[in-house]
């Protein structure tokens, strides 16, 4: 993942732990096996979960309250949840990803309301399933939310997740890293452009880069991977060819 070096460093520890478990170097209970990612929309939380599974060679399962609730009534929801949890345990090593964890709701102070009883059942089941997953060998639990403060306190209690990591908007170095990933390292992005793009998410920057490349293609600008020799070609505003490094004669 580009633009998130601190987060990636900590997630690499989970990958290393899972690799050690697969090699019978550590016990399952000594492995970091759960992480809650939180931060603004578009910062790459889902991509981080997918990348972790890919790097670890683990089966990846993604779900959310919306996916599970689509099954129908409460009984159908509980059955759907049990099925994805069973799949994660059966396919170990695996990564199960709960997107939009806040959408599972929170228990209200009015236990007499129908909605409160429904959400209490949903939250209680989620807590039970998280306990099962945390006890299962070779299963990594990753959850993501844009609204940490909307999650039921019981889900956030100490010990529920081994790590709680904030996934921030990219800083200047992150902006450059993401744009270099899309444009190539031979294209230099001017400082003023980088400053202007601060506050944009990784998803925003990817869209901007794709749009700039589409505009360049529309202007009949050849692809950077196969440039014609000795050509002078216009580039999107704010981008220029990076100066070649000094070489000894």
UniProtKB/TrEMBL annotation:
The keyword Lyase does not apply. CDD domains: RecA-like_protease (cd19481). GO terms for cellular component: plasma membrane. SMART domains: AAA. One of its GO terms (molecular function) is ATP hydrolysis activity. Residues 213-249 are annotated as: Disordered. Residues 31-171 form the AAA+ ATPase domain. It comes from the Bacteria. Signal peptide: none annotated. SUPFAM superfamilies: P-loop containing nucleoside triphosphate hydrolases (SSF52540). Keywords: ATP-binding, Nucleotide-binding. GO terms for biological process: protein catabolic process; proteolysis. Belongs to the AAA ATPase family. This is AAA+ ATPase domain-containing protein.
């Amino acid at each position: 993942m580009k633009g998130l070096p601190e987060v990636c460093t900590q997630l690499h520890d989970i990958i290393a732990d899972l690799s050690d478990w697969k090699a019978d170097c550590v016990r399952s209970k000594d492995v970091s096996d759960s992480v809650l990612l939180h931060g603004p929309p578009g910062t790459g939380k889902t991509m981080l979960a997918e990348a972790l599974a890919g790097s670890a060679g683990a089966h990846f399962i993604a779900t959310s309250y919306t996916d599970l609730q689509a099954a129908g009534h409460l009984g159908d929801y509980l059955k759907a949840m049990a099925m994805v949890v069973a799949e994660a345990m059966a396919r170990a090593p695996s990564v199960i990803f709960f997107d939009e964890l806040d959408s599972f709701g929170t228990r209200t102070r009015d236990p007499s309301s129908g909605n409160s009883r429904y959400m209490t059942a949903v939250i209680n089941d989620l807590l039970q399933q998280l306990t099962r997953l945390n006890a299962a060998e070779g299963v990594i639990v990753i959850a993501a939310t844009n609204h940490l403060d909307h999650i039921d306190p019981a889900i956030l209690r100490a010990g529920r997740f081994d790590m709680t990591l904030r996934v921030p908007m990219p800083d200047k170095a992150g902006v450059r890293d993401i744009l270099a990933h899309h444009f190539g390292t031979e294209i230099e992005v001017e400082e003023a452009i980088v400053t202007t793009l601060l506050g944009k998410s990784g998803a925003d920057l990817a869209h901007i880069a794709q749009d700039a490349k589409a505009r360049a293609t529309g202007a009949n600008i050849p692809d950077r991977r196969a440039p014609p020799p000795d050509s002078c070609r216009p580039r999107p505003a704010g981008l220029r060819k990076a100066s070649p490094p000094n070489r000894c004669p």
